Amino acid sequence: MNKIILQTDDLSKNFGSVTAVQSVNLRVQQGEVFGFLGPNGAGKTTTIGMVLGLIHPSAGRITLLNQPVTPHQNAALQQVGSLIGAPSLVPYLTARENLQLVARLHKGVDNGRINEILEMVGLTAAAERKVQGFSTGMKQRLGLGAALLHRPSLIILDEPTNGLDPAGMREVRTLIRQLADDGITVFLSSHLLHEVEQVCDRIAVIRQGQIVAQGAVADLLSQSGQSVRLKVKNPTKAGELLAQLPQAEVATNGAYVQVSGVESETAVAHLTQNGIIPSEVTVQKSDLESLFLELTK
């Protein structure tokens, strides 16, 4: 079993009578890309704030690198980098000067490391330009670089591809995977489910402050199964027949019938035996977006 680098036990947060997070138990393994998903208002930002020591939990525990994180014990946070929302940059300074400013907060960050970071996030050519002239995507990449300056063991990212064009998104996705390959754990919160599906090893889905699913992306997708879309001449009759099958969930849409919970061969055979021959059969495997919508509906 891989080493657990971040663990929360029954983590909860109340704001007055409102429960924002309730009994959240996360297990983030060393060297993985862990996706944290949920609709707006589900408790993602509050959970991240508690992990980073910015919000005091109402109940529960946080363990980071085998050390507790509390208001009086937060030494482990020195090994964490984060990019939450828009990066805080000084607009009248250059990209290099912004990194030099952040480097003063950490020990052992020299000019060589700054050059390495500029190269890593694709800003070497813009190193001497003032940040006020940067695009949103360039600022986002510089913020990511600042979070990586001190070689953290864990980096927490909230919407890291915000403002990036497709090429920039791919660069950041590649960088995230490279960080994981180098042993840095990445905790990624994002609304871009297609991106998450491509880059994350495991995910947790939070809804109304509670974790509703957690595990390997492939395992969760396999558990959600697949659906079969059939084109027939009599969709109403076909839907009634398919509804007779155990565990079948049926929906009709024009000339099409969609059924989940049964194999495509079973659906086709059942219709054929009852005199309905589909002219078109499409097997639709679940993707992360479908799983997310199912879990958070």
Secondary structure topology:
Elements: E1 4-15, E2 18-24, E3 27-29, E4 33-37, H1 44-51, E5 59-64, E6 67-68, E7 80-84, H2 95-103, H3 111-120, H4 136-148, E8 154-158, H5 166-181, E9 185-189, H6 193-199, E10 202-207, E11 210-216, H7 217-224, E12 226-231, H8 235-242, E13 249-253, E14 256-260, H9 264-273, E15 280-285, H10 288-296
Parallel strand pairs: 4-9, 4-10, 7-8, 8-9
Antiparallel strand pairs: 1-2, 1-3, 1-5, 5-6, 10-11, 12-14, 12-15, 13-14
Helix pairs in contact: 2-3
Structure description:
This protein has ten helices and 15 strands. The chain is of the alpha/beta class and 297 residues long. It folds into two domains: 4-222, Rossmann fold, CATH 3.40.50.300; 225-296, Alpha-Beta Plaits (2-Layer Sandwich). A hairpin with a 2-residue loop joins strand 5 (59-64) and strand 6 (67-68). Helix 2 packs across helix 3. The radius of gyration is 24 Å and the shape is elongated. The two termini are 33 Å apart. The model has no long low-confidence stretch (mean pLDDT 90).
Write a short abstract of this structure.
This protein is α/β, with parallel strands linked by helices and 297 residues long.
Number of individual domains: 2
For the report, how would you describe the main beta sheet?
6 strands, mixed
Cα-atom radius of gyration: 24 Å
In whole angstroms, how far apart are the ends? 33 Å
- Beta-strand content bin: 25-35%
**Overall 3D geometry?**
elongated
Count helical runs.
10
| CATH class value of the largest domain | Alpha Beta
